[in-house]
Design a protein that fits this description.
This protein is mostly helical and 240 residues long. Helices cover 78% and strands 0% of the residues. InterPro entries: AA_ABC_transptr_permease_3TM, ABC_transp_permease_HisMQ, MetI-like, MetI-like_sf. Its main location: membrane.
């Protein structure tokens, strides 16, 4: 019992431990994942539309973007966004005649970098889901005189979202864990707090095990939520 108390002692809440800091880091991790996923889905939906466009330059631009994101390490992309956003904004201010020296908040830079990364993967999920809708249903809708807008919103879009849910659920798991990359820009998310606590207390194993348990709890709850959403989306479908 004494050994267990000694192992868990640095994780206590209050002024004697790091429990409050770890909880704050977990909250920042969850918030970062939610923002990155939300913006990544919006951007990814736009990229999917570009890839499905009849206008060739849009398809080439979207294909080039996804190729670049997939070919460059996510760690490097986050660093480029973090340092590049400062340089770009300050250069723009100087060009307009204003004084430079603006620093982009670390959280905003992390959201921008992660959403840019995962938009490329969301793009392929949406594109695959769009193409998975049976073409016969679209042809039948056209035959009865439905407009293209009604066909999309009433027939294609509901089924497309149903097909996309499993892939988006997996993408959320990846986003949640890859928020740890933000530690490289000194954002106080869960992994960085664990690293600081371990170095301060000289108990790295204790803090990293605690961080692992928190990540596991978040992914477990997320997986339960994903399964529930999938069941709801499949209501009324005929089992083959």
């Amino acid at each position: 019992m004494d050994s267990i108390n000694s192992f868990l002692g640095p994780l206590a809440f209050g002024s004697t431990g790091w429990g409050d800091d770890l909880a704050r880091g977990a909250w920042i991790t969850l918030t970062l994942a939610l923002w990155s996923m939300s913006l990544g889905l919006i951007f990814g939906l736009g990229l999917a539309g570009m890839k499905l466009s009849r206008f060739a330059p849009l398809r080439w631009l979207a294909a080039g973007y996804t190729l670049f994101i997939r070919g460059v390490p996510e760690f490097l992309i986050l660093l480029v966004v973090f340092f590049g956003s400062d340089a770009l904004i300050n250069a723009g201010l100087l060009w307009m005649g204003f004084e430079a020296g603006v620093e982009v908040p670390k959280f905003a830079a992390a959201v921008a970098g992660l959403s840019a990364i995962f938009a490329a993967y969301a793009c392929e999920i949406f594109r695959g889901a769009y193409l998975a809708v049976p073409p016969g249903q679209i042809e039948a809708a056209e035959a009865i005189g439905l407009s293209r807008g009604k066909i999309f919103w009433r027939i294609r879009c509901p089924q497309m979202l149903r097909f996309a849910i499993p892939g988006l659920g997996n993408l959320w798991m990846v986003v949640l864990k890859d928020t740890s990359l933000a530690a490289v820009i000194a954002l106080d998310e869960l992994l960085r707090i664990s690293k600081l606590g371990g170095e301060t207390e000289g108990r790295q194993l204790t803090f990293f095990v605690a961080a692992g348990c928190i990540y596991l709890a978040l992914t477990l709850v997320s997986d339960i939520g994903r399964a529930w959403i999938e069941r709801r989306a499949r209501r009324g479908m005929v089992k083959v």
